[in-house]
Amino acid sequence: MEAEIVVSNLTKCYSNGTEALRGINLEVKKGAFFTLLGPNGAGKSTLIKVLTTLLEKDAGLFSIDGINPEHEKSKIQRYIGVASQDNEIDPGEKVENLLTFQSRLFGLSTADAKSRTEELMDTFQLSEQRKKKAGILSGGNKRRLHCALALVHRPQVLFLDEPTVGMDPQARANFWEIINLLNQKEYTTIFLTTQYLDEADKHANAMALILDGKIEYDGTISGFKNLVSQSDSTSLDDSYLKFIQSFSK
Ligand code: ADP
Ligand code: MG
Known about the structure:
Layout: E1 3-13, E2 19-29, E3 33-37, H1 44-51, E4 59-64, H2 73-79, E5 80-83, H3 95-105, H4 110-123, H5 139-150, E6 157-161, H6 169-185, E7 189-193, H7 197-203, E8 206-211, E9 214-219, H8 221-229, H9 236-248
Parallel strand pairs: 3-7, 3-8, 5-6, 6-7
Antiparallel strand pairs: 1-2, 1-4, 8-9
Residues 44-45, 161 line the site of magnesium ion.
């Protein structure tokens, strides 16, 4: 499989002096289910924001499917979708309208926008919420709406930043079913961050671990378990904790 996301020596420092990314090197293969793990404040959301062009990098390079964001920002924006916890959505707007507006924004015709809206509400089990204002949705439904909004234009790469926070177990299971289907049937590359390591363990096939703005592991999940625990039958959770502890010593 060829690399789809290529990141080289990427750095980002916030205006208050926080060095959030300190020379990130990373490759994510086309069609991968990739997960970026790391403690709170490690730099995961910052990396996603830079890769999705929501935030300017300071130095280094990256490309997505060979597209250089410096010259072709809008091309990247059409190629990717992003669902993050702080996605801006109008809390006073109804679910179905938000999906239709977003579809139109990405250039779908009125008819296509309508059918895409129906399709996504159906997929994400939001049909019953269609007339509800986004602001009054439960946490889990809001996260599903974020995801549906990220998919209106059928992106090749889907960035999910802690997508299952606030979902009940059934919603969570349903959500992963949808994401796995996207990954396996439509070959959408998944770039996930999560603090639920059992989810990463179950669904992802490649991972990187970021600590304090630096990638400290990059490879397969079983490779990580073997490296840390000398066995790939341990849980990712155990190996992760062991790895983090060895760093804080
Ligand atoms: P993660 O998503 O892994 O929890 P973040 O990327 O959100 O980490 O944050 C990385 C670092 O950058 C943290 O130290 C955080 O406090 C800091 N940071 C994040 N956003 C901002 C911001 N807008 N301004 C200043 N510092 C920020
Ligand atoms: Mg984050």
